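Hey, I was hoping to borrow your eyes for a little while. For a while now I've been wondering how a particular protein folds. The fold is given in discrete form, as structure tokens running alongside the sequence. Could you read through the record and tell me how the tokens relate to the sequence? Take your time with it, there's no hurry, and the full record follows here:
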Amino acid sequence: MSLPSALFNLDGQVALVTGASRGLGRGLALALASAGADIVAVSRHPAEGLAADVARLERRCRVVTADLRDPAQVEEVIPRAIAAAGRLDILVNNAGTTARGPATDVAPDVWRDVLQVNLHATFRLCQAAAKAMLPRGRGKIVNIASLMSFEGGINISPYTASKGAVGQLTKALATEWAPLGINVNAIAPGYIATDMTRALREDSARNTAILARIPAGRWARPEDFAGAVIFLAAPASDYVHGHLLVVDGGWLAR
């Protein structure tokens, strides 16, 4: 049996994280770097600040600029990452978007954009990453699901549809690829204090209602997910397949 330190050691691994320039993605990338992984940061926003922070951890960070709303750019991500880093061991599908409003008001282009980023891009990146991992018989894929993989939410029907699908996609890919050495799992975050949730936090009624439902009594911070992503990317989770790891401050337990 491996020593505990070896179970969570990512030395020599290359991890690609989408949506890595800020918020949860930035936190996940820094967590993986702290465990020893080199990072490929995929973002449509500048990620030089992240690259500098990764360098301070004595790890390398390559930046791939891509807008996952564009299917053509999605197709280029994995080849560009491998060209830059030489290999790919870990994929973290973190990039996401949402749209708020009654279902009767959701425009077709809004629906398409949310599903494109949250679901279609996630599948295509999983597919391309798996093709690179299969010849080695090993790889780790971590998708970012949501509490909305289990619940309906309020006025976020495109987001809920996409994250429900991400949960099921994670299970489907896990059952196919587990015998081939690839682990596919997901983290289902609770409410995180990021730019995506700013409108909720600034709505005093919704903010109060959300906090009242969280047993931990606070919104999550990106660093709260460090342990989960390291676990799912490391040897410690080698026998974990198709699992949605909920990190929600106790929300679903209530």
Q: What stands out?
A: The chain has one domain: 4-247.
